[in-house]
Automatic annotation (TrEMBL):
Keyword Cell inner membrane annotated: no
Domain (Protein kinase) ranges: 460-713
Biased composition (Basic and acidic residues): 225-238, 278-289
Protein name: RING-type E3 ubiquitin transferase
Organism, scientific name: Brassica napus (Rape)
Ranges of compositional bias, category Low complexity: 239-257
GO molecular function ontology, one term from the record: ubiquitin protein ligase activity
This protein's record includes keyword Hydrolase: no
Lineage of the organism: Eukaryota, Viridiplantae, Streptophyta, Embryophyta, Tracheophyta
Length: 803
């Protein structure tokens, strides 16, 4: 182990505090600064054992000797020394900030702790400071040495050396010497209170509680201190002026305190005189007292350490207690929170339970209801099955009934035909027996049941309704494949079924080409069954309803003639029949625009009352006399003529036409939509209308004359102009007077099943030849029945008579 530097220094080991420093400045910095702070007035000598570098190559045989090795060793030593110097400079720079005197003692050696012990022994080092452990091991509870080097030094250093072991700048352990009692005078003072330690501990004791505990322990210490001090004061003599008692009293726990080293040997070596002897004795006493004082202080410090250790344990326990208390408090809080939460949860649970209970009860209720419903359902299902069986049964019965009904209907139709044929035969026989003059007295009109009418009108389907007048509704119907119009008359009046049927039967005998044929009746429902006329009424033509095109003036004259002829026919009947309600809605038009007057003789079927006074077609004289007369029909006919001429609203039309005739300006009132009216014919027809509408019924013309005049107007214009006024134009019969087969005026007109009227001989021959189709339409006829057309027959006779 060789010296690097400082070994040869003439150090005063009593005045020097040796501080062991490591290779790493940072590691020993705190220890060094602690020494500089605490040993003011002393020299600080750095003690450094350097482990020199020893390259492995040195052991190589080739390099084991020779100049190279020597040279290399030198270089390494130089580098090492340089390093050591730099290191020492770093430490000295640290100390340069303090005012302590510094020195350094460096040796080289492979084992640091042995080097330290060697140095202590070699130089008789008395005051030595070194690290107890590296800083990272420090804790405030630390009391033991951790570093192997420190432990080694503590064990092996010579006894005369007083050693302070530090960690992170805090004194951890002090190794006193056996001679400390004798060395007391030379022990270096710790001039500075270890305020860092105090601060550090204070920081640790953050809580006020801990501070209180600290004060408590301090007071204990102070009491002990006072006690000791008291003892000391009793024992000690005057303290040395060099003694740093303040330092001692202010030292930190366990810090060794002592007076300024003042070895008697170092005081001086004057000659021994009695006074000197006294002086020496006194000084010796003082020194002993001082030493005792130091010892006492040391004991105190040891006691303090022990107490502090105990206090620390106490604090630890207190800490634990506090911690436990805090934990208990926290747990208490948690517990109460938990309890309240639990209470709330229990309340919620109770609520939930109640709700669940309610739901269960509801559920049970529903289940009970469900069971009832299921029971009902089963019952209903069985009932449904029964009903379905019944329905099936009834359906079968219904089908059977329908079959029966069908067969009954067929039978009924057959019987009806048989009945009709029988009547015809009876009539024929009667005619044979009583001669030609005998008219058929038996009714050929058919009676229908309500069921048949109901069936025919599709149960009085509203869409089949043709119209509704003041004497009831009219429905379109289908009876035995014939289109019919069923007029439902009101049931009021005194007529019984028989009376009603008889009157209808009388009316049904009236057969005229311009009268709607009555085909039958249903006394049960008080309805009259008419032949269906498909082309609307004259009213529709005047109002342009149903898109009916305007009638040409020729058709209007023809229609006037046909109305007149039908009226004449009704009036000529025995007993005469008054229409009593003649107006354009009663003038129906068939597919050839041939006139068919409906509703004739209705007043005989139901009591006619409440005739509308505002109706301009009604004879004003009726409102005077209260009686419908033949002239009343003439008046109504006159009003229809005025409408045919002018197609104007009836109010004021009579006055306008009169005016036009008087002013010889008939064209002003003629309806142009009918084409170019021949003025003469227009004027003539206007005169006839004016005459028909005379207020006095007696001044109204005879219909036969009127008919003749109108018929004359029917001839084509060319024909009429070629005849002189006294010459009669050739007799041209109306087209419907001609038999469609023979094309001659009919003598015995018969209505066939196709609805057309034929000469009896022509149609019988047609049928006799095996035809079952219509000569006009070529469609199959329902039957071969032929009904006399009396109305037409009479009209033809009338026509013959006129000429
Ligand atoms: N045989 C028929 N064929 C076709 N349509 C008919 C027939 N009879 C009547 N009608 C229609 O039925 C409608 C109603 O006729 P109905 O005679 O009951 O009343 P109206 O003449 O209009 O009025 P009211 O009888 O009150 O004077 C007529 O306007 C006509 O269009």
């Amino acid at each position: 182990m060789g010296s690097i530097g400082g070994d040869e220094l003439g150090l005063d080991v009593d005045e020097t505090i040796f501080v062991a420093v490591a290779e790493d400045v940072e590691r020993s910095k705190t220890t060094l600064l602690w020494a500089a702070r605490n040993f003011s007035g002393k020299k600080i000598c750095l003690l450094y054992v350097h482990r020199p570098a020893r390259p492995a190559s040195w052991t190589h045989k080739k390099l084991a000797g020779g100049t190279f090795r020597k040279h290399a060793v030198k270089v390494i030593e130089r580098v090492d020394k340089q390093k050591v110097d730099e290191l020492m400079d770093s430490y000295l720079r640290l100390l340069s900030k303090t005012e302590v005197q510094t020195d350094k003692l460096c040796i080289a050696g492979q084992n640091i702790e042995e080097g330290i012990v060697d140095l202590i022994a070699r130089h008789n080092i008395k005051w030595f400071v070194m690290g107890a452990a590296s800083d990272k091991h420090y804790s405030w509870r630390m009391t033991d040495l951790k570093s192997k080097k420190a432990i080694f030094v503590c064990k092996n250093a010579p006894d005369f050396c007083h050693i302070w072991f530090l960690c992170k700048g805090y004194l951890i352990f002090t190794r006193t010497t056996n001679d400390d009692t004798s060395n007391t005078q030379t022990m270096p003072p710790l001039v500075q209170l270890d305020s860092d330690t105090e601060t550090r501990r204070s920081e640790k004791l953050e809580s006020s509680y801990m501070r209180r505990r600290l004060r408590y322990w301090r007071s204990l210490l102070e009491q002990d201190g006072e006690k000791d001090t008291g003892q000391l004061e009793r024992e000690k003599v005057e303290p040395s002026p060099t003694t740093h008692s303040s330092s001692g009293s202010g030292s930190s726990f366990g810090e060794p305190v002592g007076p300024e080293p003042a070895s008697p040997d170092l005081v001086g070596s004057d000659t021994l005189t009695p006074s000197n002897v006294q002086e020496r004795k006194r000084e010796g006493n003082v020194a002993r007292e001082v030493h005792r004082y130091d010892k006492a202080m040391h004991d105190i410090s040891q006691s303090e350490r022990t107490v502090y250790g105990e206090a620390r344990n106490g604090w630890k326990e207190d800490d634990s207690t506090m911690e436990a208390l805090c934990k208990a408090k926290a747990l208490d809080g948690l517990c109460s929170k938990e309890l309240s939460r639990r209470k709330k949860l229990e309340e919620l649970l109770e609520k939930e339970k109640d709700e669940v209970k309610t739901v269960i009860e509801q559920n049970n209720g529903f289940m009970r209801k469900l069971q009832i419903v299921q029971g009902d359902n089963l019952r209903l299902e069985s009932q449904i099955t029964k009903l379905q069986d019944l329905e099936k049964e009834h359906g079968e019965k219904f089908d059977t009934a329908m079959e029966l009904l069908k067969s009954f209907r067929q039978k009924r139709d057959e019987i009806r035909i048989d009945h009709e044929n029988a009547i015809k035969e009876v009539n024929a026989l009667k005619r044979l027996i009583k001669g030609k003059s005998v008219e058929s007295s038996g009714s050929e009109m058919l009676d229908y049941s309500f069921m048949e009418i109901n069936e025919a009108t599709n149960e009085f389907d509203p869409s089949w309704k043709l119209g509704e007048g003041k004497y009831g509704s009219v429905y379109k119907g289908n009876l035995q494949n014939l289109q019919v119009a069923v007029k439902m008359l009101p049931s009021y009046g005194s007529q019984n079924h028989f009376e009603f049927e008889r009157k209808v039967e009388i009316l049904s005998r009236l057969r005229h080409p311009h009268l709607v044929t009555i085909m039958g009746t249903c006394p049960e429902s008080r309805s009259v069954i008419y032949q269906y006329v498909p082309n609307g009424s004259l009213e529709d033509c005047f109002s342009s309803a149903n898109n009916v095109p305007a009638l040409p003036w020729e058709s209007r004259i023809r229609i006037a003639s046909e109305i007149c002829s039908a009226l004449l026919f009704l009036h000529s009947n025995v007993p005469c029949i008054i229409h009593g309600n003649l107006k354009p809605s009663k003038i129906l038009l068939d597919s050839n625009l041939v006139t068919k007057i409906s509703d004739y003789g209705i007043s005989q079927l139901i009591p006619v009352n409440g005739i509308d006074k505002s109706d301009p077609h009604v004879d004003p004289h009726y409102f005077v006399s209260g009686e419908m007369t033949l002239e009343s029909d003439v008046y109504s006919f006159g009003m229809i003529l005025l409408q045919l001429l002018t197609r104007r609203p009836l109010s004021g039309v009579l006055r306008d036409v009169k005016c036009a005739v008087e002013n010889d300006n008939i064209s002003a009132v003629l309806d142009n939509s009918g084409g170019d009216w021949p003025i003469a014919r227009g004027k003539k027809l206007a005169n006839i209308a004016i005459r028909c509408c005379k207020r006095n019924p007696l001044n109204r013309p005879d219909l036969a004359v009127v008919l003749r005049n109108i018929d004359r107007m029917k001839a084509p214009l060319s024909e009429q102009s070629s005849y002189s006024s006294n010459q009669k134009p050739p007799r041209k019969p109306p087209s419907h007077y001609l038999c469609p087969i023979f094309q001659e005026v009919m003598k015995d007109p018969l209505i066939a099943a196709d609805g057309f009227t034929y000469e009896a001989e022509a149609i019988r021959e047609w049928l006799a030849n095996g035809h079952d189709t219509s000569p006009m339409t070529n469609l199959k006829m329902e039957d071969c029945n032929l009904i006399p057309n009396h109305a037409l027959h009479l009209a033809i006779q009338d026509w013959h008579n006129q000429w």
